[in-house]
Write a structure and sequence with these properties.
The protein is an alpha/beta fold. The protein has 23 helices and 23 strands.
């Protein structure tokens, strides 16, 4: 994917994503290093910076093996005086929490910006955590853009603040900031600082208890200064009559909703509106000034009532009798994303106004259900179809410990092959405990290739060391597919598209002592069946086995076929041979195969990707290619990874 807009001429106005605006700000500031781990809604920040690096030759950009390593990478650069950023989705900060807390104790020598892209409403996440709590817990300031419109300016200010205070700063984005496109006027690109100097100081950089105790005291003192200084930060602004008895506080993206809601209610000229961009620590003296003389304060924020809690503490300490409304009073929803209609109604209800919620238009059309499914031609479909057949043949009870990835979709029928799904690497971790406590079942831990590198290796070693019998199923398509096909250590390319050393999963498994390591071609159902049976039998015999199912993500395979001008085959049903057994569209469940009125199958050529896996599924050999299949196409399907750009 290209991001030409982030290299636009200074002074020009261009349409860009909020994430791209964050990346542009980093270039305008002159960062020297950027690292991250892909995760929606954060991925485009590092992708855009990688694009810039390919064109400009700077800054240094990498996709790290996980968020902890990515954080430490940027942290290491920042303590050597090189301005750096690390970007991740909200749950990724859990992985990086250990160094996060320590970075506040030591501080940095140049900017360290930690971008946390939160995901309210969980559009692509397993939880809805609000990472402003990390700011409070770790004593790290949190800056929140109010929208994609000011993502660039807030990023610049956050980088500058981090440098001025020699302290890490969290930039909290949310989905509607990261993934909204808007016109951004860009500034001048700065000359980057690519190299620094490490100044040896064991009293600061070595966190043994004697040093950490002293640094803790210094951190608290610094936090007090940061709190006072943020009260005068120009990113926090107010509008409306100062003598109004009503105050609305819009925090981050909550400001946009608040302002538009007040506009709808025709209250912009009568209500005081405070915009908060530096939410953690709360700008105390500013809040006190704005609360004084107010009967009512309404706090609008996305996520948890983090700012609401802080304002209530301040009001209590300062003996202010303002009635404070927010999420905890039930007027503003505490789950999901903010919605303009909800905020407008909440303000009207609190202020006793008669506001009629606009009724939605009802159309008497029954929309057919569209449950999420694996793509037509996805290699995971043939793998799980084959494994279900093996389980049925062996007549064993199985617990499927699942993980985060496209393969999470096999939780749905007809595969029903995800019994747990908790966090990255959790499949093998949970499988360790399940294998020791289940007597009548075996455990299959399913994990993707990128996730294996990210968090699956420790669990694998633990299983071998502690003799936890299981089969580890690694689905290897050579890319981080779910988040947009970013490379990883098994891809053979780095973030800039340059050739990199490929680290093979099977080599790691063998070095870790896994008893049996088998590799199957994902699109070859018979191959998967035979290897899966061997792997599961090993687990039944008390051993740790690994089956690596290797096959290209169909989207990358299609892209390669176009690049190499290889014609993909199209398959059809021989209706004379078809017996309407329903296996291909019910048990195999390829979206390209649909039932006819008589129960026989039909293949939609507009959807069929030519993966050929369905050929092995049909017991009557009714599925056939219209033309001779190019063997180059078969090779593309079996080849994993990306092409160098």
């Amino acid at each position: 994917m290209t991001y030409e807009e982030i290299l636009a001429e200074p002074g020009s106005t261009v349409l860009m994503l909020g994430n791209a605006a964050i990346a542009r700000a980093c270039l305008e500031y002159g960062i020297g290093l950027a690292s991250g781990y892909p995760g929606t809604p954060s991925s485009e920040i590092i992708e855009a910076l990688a694009y810039a690096s390919r064109k400009l030759g700077y800054p240094y950009v990498e996709w790290s093996i996980n968020e902890k390593v990515a954080f430490e990478n940027a942290y290491g650069a920042a303590i050597s005086g090189v301005p750096s950023i690390v970007a991740m989705k909200h749950v990724g900060l859990n992985v990086a929490a250990d160094p996060l807390f320590s970075s506040a104790y030591t501080g940095v020598e140049s900017s360290l910006l930690i971008v946390s892209a939160d995901d309210p409403a969980m559009w692509s996440s397993q939880n809805e955590q609000d990472n402003r709590w990390y700011g409070l817990h770790a004593y790290i300031p949190v800056f929140e853009p109010t929208g994609a419109q000011d993502a660039r300016s807030v990023t610049l200010e956050a980088l500058k603040f981090s440098s001025d205070y020699k302290h890490p700063v969290i930039l909290r984005s949310v989905t509607r900031v990261s993934h909204t496109r808007t016109n951004i006027t860009v500034g001048q690109l700065a000359k980057p600082k690519l190299y620094g100097e490490f100044k040896r100081d064991t009293s600061r950089w070595v966190l043994v208890p004697s040093n950490a105790r002293r640094l803790r005291e210094e951190l608290i003192a610094k936090w007090d200064k940061i709190t006072k200084d943020l009260s005068d930060n120009p990113l926090n602004t107010s509008e409306g009559p100062r003598d109004s008895r009503i105050l609305v506080i819009g925090v981050g993206v909550g400001y946009r909703y608040s302002r538009e809601a007040l506009q709808r209610l025709k209250l912009l000229d009568t209500v005081r509106l405070l915009k908060i961009t530096t939410s953690i620590p709360p700008p105390k003296s500013l809040i006190v000034r704005e609360l004084e003389g107010k009967n009512i304060a309404i706090i609008v924020e996305e996520g948890d009532p983090v700012f609401e809690d802080q304002v209530k503490i301040i009001a209590y300490d300062e003996r202010l009798d303002t009635k404070i409304y927010g999420k905890k009073t039930g007027y503003i929803p505490i789950t999901g994303e903010l919605k303009l209609e909800d905020i407008t109604k909440a303000l009207a209800d609190i202020l006793g106004l008669n506001y009629r919620v606009k009724s939605s238009v009802r159309v008497n059309i029954e929309i057919p259900p569209r449950p999420p499914v694996l793509c037509p031609g996805c290699p995971y479909r043939s793998v799980f179809y084959a494994i279900r057949r093996v389980i049925k043949k062996l007549k064993v009870n199985v617990v499927y410990a699942g993980d985060i990835g496209c393969y999470s979709l096999v939780v749905n029928p007809p595969f029903n092959a995800q019994d747990t799904l908790v966090e990255m690497g959790g499949s093998i971790g949970l499988a360790n405990g399940l294998s020791h406590t289940l007597r009548d079942s075996i455990v299959i831990a399913t994990i993707g290739d990128s996730t294996f590198y990210h968090a699956g290796i420790p669990g694998t070693i633990n299983a071998v060391y502690n003799r936890a019998p299981m089969t580890i199923l690694v689905l290897d398509n050579g890319v981080t597919a779910m988040t947009g096909h970013q490379p990883h250590p098994g891809t053979g390319l780095d973030a800039l598209g340059r050739e990199a050393r490929r680290i093979k999963i099977e080599d790691i498994a063998k070095a870790s002592g896994v008893d049996s390591v088998l590799i199957a071609k994902s699109f070859n159902i018979r191959d998967v069946e035979s290897k899966a049976e061997l792997a599961i039998r090993e687990a039944l015999n008390g051993k740790v086995s690994m089956l690596i199912a290797r096959g290209s993500c169909i989207l990358t395979a299609i892209a390669k076929s176009r690049r190499y001008k290889v014609k993909r085959p199209v398959y059809s049903i021989d209706l004379d041979k078809c017996r309407a057994c329903t296996i291909c569209y019910n048990a195999f469940a390829c979206p390209a195969i649909i039932p006819r009125g008589d129960g026989k199958a039909s293949i939609d050529p507009r959807i069929c990707t030519g993966c050929s896996a369905c050929v092995d599924v049909c017991p009557f050999e009714a599925i056939q290619s219209i033309e001779v299949v190019d063997e180059t196409w078969r090779g593309i399907l079996d080849e994993v990874g990306l092409d160098s750009e």
